[in-house]
Amino acid sequence: MTSPADLPAGVQADVPAELARLRGSIDNLDAALVHLLSERFKLTRAVGEFKARQGLPPSDKGREERQTARLRALSEQAELDPEFAEKFLAFVIDEVVRHHEAIARDHTA
Amino acid sequence: MTSPADLPAGVQADVPAELARLRGSIDNLDAALVHLLSERFKLTRAVGEFKARQGLPPSDKGREERQTARLRALSEQAELDPEFAEKFLAFVIDEVVRHHEAIARDHTA
């Protein structure tokens, strides 16, 4: 039995070898990204629980600004478009703040 | 001389030690994510150039559906919300298709 997770999404009979090779590497990076994002949400969940216990607000604009500045600088070193890095961080933080708000609601309920 | 990239965004004098520790780990994962995303865009740039040379269309709905199904399955294994993984992939692919369209325009120009 194979599950969708076992099948590299790039493997297809009618795809040129060069394209299949590139897609195989993209699929490997995507698996790594999913696992790192999962670890990141475990950490932000712990942050959310800590903030709820201490009565701290779920979001922290100063921290977000420092994260954005740092990721933009890191992106330039890594040859990633800093605009994309900033959009990516905003996308992830959006989800984190939603989680923190839910934790804060559970905590006061 | 320190640049914003050298300073962990979580380090602040007035932050409790537990919160600073969690933020330091989040910052390390973010650096890893930025570097993996950069590698991913290098691969998708190569895919875009290959497609432009072969006259293949920039986007491929069948491939995207297989990627989505695979990432949702991987997310369940990794304890990441599959809805978030799907939104994340759509966010990244949006950017990739924009790149591919630009490559295709350059190629025909």
Please tell me about this protein's structure.
The structure is a homodimer of 109-residue chains. Chain A contains 3 helices and no strands. Chain A has 109 residues and is mostly helical.
Give the SSE order of chain A as H and E letters. Answer: HHH
Which parts of chain A are unreliable, with pLDDT below 50 for 5 consecutive residues or more?
none
Shape type of chain A: elongated
Q: Tell me the greatest interface.
A: A-B, 59 and 59 residues
What is the typical, i.e. mean, pLDDT of chain A? 89
Specify the oligomeric state.
Answer: homodimer
Number of strands of chain A: 0
Major β-sheet of chain A, in short?
A: none
Total number of helices of chain A:
3
In short:
Two copies of one chain form a homodimer. Chain A is mostly helical.
Give the arrangement of secondary structure elements.
Two copies of one chain form a homodimer.
Chain A: H1 17-54, H2 61-78, H3 82-108
List its salient traits:
homodimer, 109 residues, mainly alpha, 76% helix, 0% strand
